[in-house]
Specification:
Strand content: 25-35%
CATH architecture: Roll
Distance between the termini: 49 Å
Oligomer: single chain
Number of domains: 1
Shape: globular
CATH class: Alpha Beta
């Protein structure tokens, strides 16, 4: 989706992330693909690809996780060094808490730029393993 330069600021990008999170929580995959597309569809129907990839990531390796709609997602906005040859401008990482699992579902919006125009789209979805504390399992750790 094409956006303005002003929409590349942190607050508007975080708003796009919050919008994406709400659609994922509501399982509105058609809304996601209509609004943001999906870079990893690989020729599959977009809404079906999003639904399949989320379900796959939440159930692979014996998991039976589901997105917890009652908990707030963490949304991080990052920027790529400019200029760059990849046309990458920014990244919005949305970490959705899960029920029945300590990990998170990561959904990423990528912001690209070409010829002074800016675009935001759904780049991918993945399972993020829970972070292990550096003191966990260390000798003398309590």
């Amino acid at each position: 989706m094409e956006i303005t330069y002003e929409q590349t600021y942190q607050e508007p990008l975080a708003h796009f992330g919050a919008e994406l999170v709400q659609m994922i929580k509501n399982r509105n995959y058609l809304g996601v693909c209509d609004r943001f597309g999906y870079a990893m569809a690989y020729g599959r129907p977009l809404a079906d690809a999003i639904a399949f990839d989320i379900e796959h990531d939440l159930t692979i390796e014996g998991r039976s996780a589901i997105v917890d709609p009652s908990r707030e997602a963490r949304i991080l906005v990052k920027y790529f060094k400019q200029p760059n040859d990849c046309m990458l401008f920014g990244l919005v990482e949305c970490f959705l808490p899960l029920d029945q699992d300590d990990g998170e579902l990561l959904v990423e919006l990528i912001v690209t730029t070409k010829e002074n125009k800016f675009y935001v789209g759904l780049e991918g979805v993945s399972y993020e393993h829970p972070k292990i504390s550096s003191s966990a399992g260390a000798p003398g750790a309590t």
